[in-house]
Design goal:
Blueprint: H1 2-16, H2 19-28, H3 34-64, H4 75-96, H5 98-102, H6 116-127, H7 132-144, H8 148-162, H9 164-175, H10 180-219, H11 224-235
Helix pairs in contact: 1-7, 1-8, 1-10, 2-3, 2-6, 3-6, 3-7, 3-8, 3-9, 4-7, 4-10, 7-8, 9-10, 10-11
């Protein structure tokens, strides 16, 4: 459970720096009733992402589990290695194209006539089918065969990490006082200039961590040193 928690936190934080959700939240933060609208938007993003993930992990996952070969104790390790490798590849792509990506304008969205709830839900619903980091986390959860209740706990943990930047915007609006607008403006400028490099760094660290978990898990049955390292990573 602790190992999976570390994986979903790593992937969730790496996936959280998402212009598709952060840009609309920053837009809402500059309008009327900013605090309430950002809170509604954040709740909608969380709800749609969580419900979609639960439908896959607890719904489809229960159909997949009986098809997995026995014994299953190395299945999770192999999935972790694959997930970590995919994150490392994504980090390399982001880093290679970081200069071009910073020149791209923020994602277009049309808030006209939409409530904050509808805006958050619609953006997330469109984003969900291509949410490959989320699918990677779900694959690791399902492959570990912890059961539906723990799967849901891990999905909640992932989604709290995923909306962490939105919660940060909400915290600035709540506690920032007269400096809130300036803090958000500085944050918007920083993200526009540096988000590909920051995201590449997060994906690199998360990918290395997840790969290390998988490799030490595979080697744990053959090496006492690997078993000790694997235990350290799980509990660290």
């Amino acid at each position: 459970m602790l190992r999976l928690a570390g994986i979903v936190i790593s992937i969730g934080l790496a996936d959280s720096l998402n212009p598709t959700t952060i840009a609309p939240a920053l837009y809402l933060a500059t309008g009327e009733r900013a605090q309430g609208r950002v809170a509604e938007f954040t709740a909608a993003v969380f709800a749609v992402y969580f419900i979609g993930g639960a439908a896959i992990a607890v719904g489809a996952g229960q159909l997949i589990r009986p098809l997995l070969p026995h014994p299953r104790h190395h299945i999770a390790d192999i999935i972790e290695i694959a997930v970590g490798a995919a994150m490392l590849a994504a980090a390399a792509v982001l880093w290679r194209h970081r200069a071009r990506l910073t020149l791209r304008a923020p994602p277009d969205f049309d808030p006209q006539g939409k409530s904050s709830w509808v805006l958050g839900a619609s953006i997330t619903a469109v984003e969900l089918p291509t949410a490959f980091p989320y699918f990677a986390a779900i694959a690791a959860i399902v492959g570990s065969d912890l059961g539906p209740a723990r799967d849901l706990v891990l999905l909640v943990l992932f989604n709290v990490c995923f909306v962490a930047p939105l919660l940060g915007i909400l915290a600035v609006l709540t506690f920032g006082g007269d400096q809130a607008d300036q803090i958000l403006a500085d944050g918007r400028e920083f993200l526009q200039r540096h988000w590909p490099a920051v995201l590449a760094g997060l994906a690199l660290v998360a990918g290395l961590f997840v790969v290390a978990l998988g490799l030490t898990g595979l080697a744990a049955s053959k090496s006492e040193l690997a078993r000790d390292l694997h235990h350290t990573l799980r509990s660290g």
